[in-house]
Amino acid sequence: MNDFAAFNYERPLIMHIDLNSCFATVEQQARPMLRGKPVAIVNRRTDTTAIVTASYEAKVLGVKVGMKLRDAKILCPDIIGLESDPPKYRYVYHRLLDIMKDYSAHVTMKSIDEGIIDFHDSPTAISGRDLEDIGREIKQRLKDEIGVWMRCNVGIATNRFLAKTAAGLHKPDGLDVITPANIREVLATMKLTDLTGIAGRNEKRLNSVGIFTPLEFLDADPVTLQKVVFKSVVGMWWYKRLRGWEVDDVSTEIKRVGRQYVLESFSLSHDEIVQRLHHLCESVGSRMRSQNKSARGIYVYAKTLERGYWHSSSLSQLPFCSDQTIFVLAKQLFENAPTGLKEIGIHCYELESIENDQMSFFNDQIVRERQVTDAIDGINKRFGERTIHAANTLETGIYVKQKIPFGSTRYL
Amino acid sequence: MNDETFLNEQVEVIAIFGHGHEPCRLLRFKRANGREVEVKELGLRHPFNSGNKTLHIFDVTDGGADYRLEFDSERLIWHLTMEADHYE
């Protein structure tokens, strides 16, 4: 019998807070006339754009995230399409973070609309309180400090996975606790794909050994999960996760920095596409330097209208971080790109800290480039983004706008 | 479908600066054409940094339309930058 066969019976001290339909809710908060109406947030207001967030009123009518606005209008002709407004969402993110930090020094934001409070090392005055009371207090503070339309889901459990699961039980304004006493009851109401981390491929793996429900998943033995289903330590992680043991408290390191762009028109010339690629390079360079990173690898890709995927990459001996170098390398790779493009993207990888750069024989040139880049960054920081940028991207700013990255909170 | 009009209209605003969660409460504003709009509710106030300069953006409603007002904290002037009054 392994050490984790039993459930984790410690007091639940992990709280997951989730602002569901975050961007739509924030827009409805900001603009009272939108409240109670179906709203879809898109990154560009065209019929072919995909919905980033839909309000609850739209979701009730069948509108889903990722659906094209054109298709959503068929389901819901009155849907109001709004272009995303990142500064507004960033502000709400920081207000939520401030509220959460009032309860613990151990707060982790998982994305712009969800975060975790770990109460393990909180002062007794806080951790001694009923966590459900704290959850209700946070809900009220959101309304008082941001606005009356703000709602959040709160989940409490002994680990991050079950806390997130609890937060998803009664959307849009739930507060639930998962403990060993009710976990079977909770899992009995769910499908396998309702579990975070179980999508198509993992579902098939589980189905292949006769696991079709979360309860069967819970009852599966660790050897089967590890040796047969996941064929790695991931199986054991799932075994522990479902029993309330923490396995997800790991910090991730930045591995690559990238951006992609769906072309605003599918009839752009090669030069016009390269201009947009240049804009992406400037954006990636700026993001990379904001994390004090330089890269050695560059990866460029494109998706075609015929659902084709093209990519090309190169690895340099010396690290680089200037917009100019990124663009020169990306442009070289992009010369072999196919025609009929729908989407382009670029990633920089093999990242290293800028301070750790090894000096090279080409020191003068690198130092000069770094100084110019620092000067440009300084001016842009003082006078606003894109105060100085390449002349080639003068006309691309109205198309390639800065949007909110889902998942990572590094750039918020 | 949403019907937003984007503007850059300097407006006169009557506001009360106080404290608490709503340190700047907008009461009414006067548009360039002389029309006065009474603010019924402040939806959200958020700062917008453009380099070292901070603009404070106020999304408000008069009960019939939503408006976006921007306060330039450096020049102490207000602009009406968006009006959305038709959602049907």
Outline the structure in words:
- The complex is a heterodimer of chains A (412) and B (88).
- Chain A has 15 helices and twelve strands.
- Chain A has 412 residues and is of the alpha+beta class.
- Chain A has three domains: 1-181, 2-Layer Sandwich (Alpha-Beta Plaits), CATH 3.30.70.270; 184-251, 5' to 3' exonuclease, C-terminal subdomain (DNA polymerase, domain 1); 263-393, DNA polymerase, Y-family, little finger domain (Dna Ligase, domain 1), CATH 3.30.1490.100.
- In chain A, the strands form three sheets. A five-stranded mixed sheet of chain A has the order 5-6-1-7-8.
- In chain A, a hairpin with a 2-residue loop joins strand 5 (107-111) and strand 6.
- In chain A, helix 4 (86-101) packs antiparallel against helix 6, helix 11 (222-229) packs antiparallel against helix 12 (234-242) and helix 13 runs antiparallel to helix 14.
- The longest helix of chain A is centred in the C-terminal third of the chain and has 21 residues, at 270-290.
- The relative contact order of chain A is 0.10.
- Chain B has strands at 4-17, 24-30, 36-38, 41-50, 53-61, 66-72, 77-84.
- Chain B is globular.
- Chain B is mainly beta and 88 residues long.
- Chain B is 0% helix and 66% strand.
- Chain B has a seven-stranded antiparallel sheet with strand order 3-2-1-7-6-5-4, with no helix packed on it.
- Chain B has one domain (4-84).
- At the A-B interface, helix 1, strand 4, helix 4 and helix 15 of A face strand 4 and strand 5 of B.
